[in-house]
Every structure is written in C-alpha cells, then in structure tokens.
Amino acid sequence: MKASIAIALFLEALFVSQSESVVVGAFVMPHGGIALDPRYFNATNATAKAQAWLVHDSAVQVGKHIEDLKPDAIVVSSPHGITAPEDFIFYFSPKGFGFSDTDNCACPPCCYNLSVAMDTNGVEVLVSTLKDEKEKVSYLSAFGPPGKEDMPFPLRWGEVVPLYFAKNALGHGKVIVLSQPSRRYTKSVQMIPELTQLGRKMFKILHSQPEKIVIIISADLAHTHLKSGPYGFSTAAEPFDKACGTWVTTQKSASLLTEAAFYVDKALSCGFTGLVMLDGLLKASPTAWDSHLLANFHPSYYGMMLASFIPKP
C-alpha cells in the first residue's frame, strides 16, 4: 500500500514537473522606435501613420498576452546587442538596465527606460549545455564578478523595445538575453543550418527546465523599403517581408529558409537570423503551434512584424 502511494505521488510530481516545464509561447516583435509611440512619427502619409498605430497596437496586444501567460523566464534574441564576431552571446548578470527612444524624438526627453532581473541560472544551463554540444556560444558579464555584479548589464533598443511592451510580466519572470553574432550582417544565409540546429537544441534545453518560458525574437524586417532611407530602396524588400509573413501563417519552413533567404542579402533584415533560429525551435517541439500574424507593415523604411506562436492544447 505504501509503495503504491509512493509511486502515485512520484507520478503526480513527474506530471506536474512536465506540465510546468514548457515553452508557453513564442513571439516576433519589432524594435523600431516607431512602435513605442507613433505620436512622434514624423510622417505626412496617412497610410504610413495608420500602419504605425497598427504596429503599436499589435505590440500592446502581444505584451498583454505575454503578461497573461505569467512566464517564469523570457528569452529574448536580439540582433542589436553587445556582440562577438563568431559566438552567440548570453548576458550573464543578475540585472540589466537600458533605454530606447522613439523615431523623431530622441532621449531625452523621449526616454523609455527599463530595468530587468536576469536569469543567471538559466544562462548557466544554456551555455554549459550548448558548449558541451560544440555550439558557438559564450557569455558576457560586466563591471564585476560574473553573475554577481552590482551594476546592471547595459541594454539598448534591441532588447528594450520588445520588453517594454511586456514590462508588466517582468515582475514575475526573469530575462535571458541572447545576442546574435556580428557575422549575421554578411553571412546570414550561410548561418541557416547552424541557426536551425541551435534553435532545436535550445528548445530541448528550455523544455527540460521546471518553469514556464516565453521566447521573444526581436526583429525588424527589410530595411530597404524607401529610397530616402539610410539603406536606399531594393525591390527585394517587399517580397522578403511577404515571405516572412507567409512563414508565420503557414509555418512552412521553406517560406523563410528558401524564399526569404533568397531576398535577405538585398532586403537587409536585422531580424532574419532570429527568425531562422525560431523556426528550428518551433520544429523541435513535439506539439503543434497556433500561429497568428498580427501586423506586417513598413510605415517607414524598415518592415515591422508582430506574430505569435502558442502551443496547441
């Protein structure tokens, strides 16, 4: 009798552990300043202004969704963090602080400040496990003993903008930041197999942890929508953004890994490598995902997309 009770308790504990150990959602969010507050967006085109507000409202919606999920940890992939040439860098500090501003209104006065608690234990697990599997990963700390610093690790727009919309979830959950390597600027297509593999391995590691986890891919799309923009105009911009949207709605990897990849070198998207990593992560899950494309617009020279992936019951 005692043995059967012990077995029942063990199985119950195992079930609870497995049910709590889950990636509860993945989201694609922009980091362009327009999303923060379109009131400052200096556009005379009514359509562009309306699109800016749609992006903003969708980001607010995603932030509320993340808050409702009550994650214990939020993993953010940033293309504009502190980078290394080759390695994917995890920030290994107990806290982070940074700011961003919005387009056409710099900080100060338009300062969007953010303080976050960082998940050093989660970083240790990810880095040690991925290193054992020969992945190109490392960690960075700042201003003190690794993982024990008094000064916060510096954050900027690549992390601050998406997390700002999810700030109400930060009182419950800690943050893990993954900075994409600087080789993404010139070798994003060559990185596709590596990114897919990294995403798959990250899912298996995260899914084994006893907590609820949310993934945020900080990503802007093509940066070549306007001739007057800093990168000029390319005919690759529109089909690239469209292919990324198709990837979300269909979850067909080819839309991203083949079609979008064909255009990315001319479209100039900072978020492509993060999206590819996410595709690998999603495909590693034993469960299917409900995906929703909330916004895919380019009110300015760069495209911005909001998307959600939620595991099916």
TrEMBL record:
Stored Gene3D superfamilies: LigB-like
SUPFAM superfamilies noted in UniProt: LigB-like
Which top-level group of life is the source organism from? Answer: Eukaryota
The record's section on InterPro entries has:
Xdiol_dOase_suB
Under Gene Ontology molecular function, one entry of this record is: ferrous iron binding
- Which keywords fit this entry according to its UniProt record? Signal
User: Where is the Extradiol ring-cleavage dioxygenase class III enzyme subunit B domain positioned along the sequence?
Assistant: 46-299
Q: Where is the signal peptide?
A: 1-21
> Is Nucleus a UniProt keyword of this protein?
no
Q: What is this protein called?
A: Protein TTE1956
**Species of the source:** Acropora cervicornis (Staghorn coral)
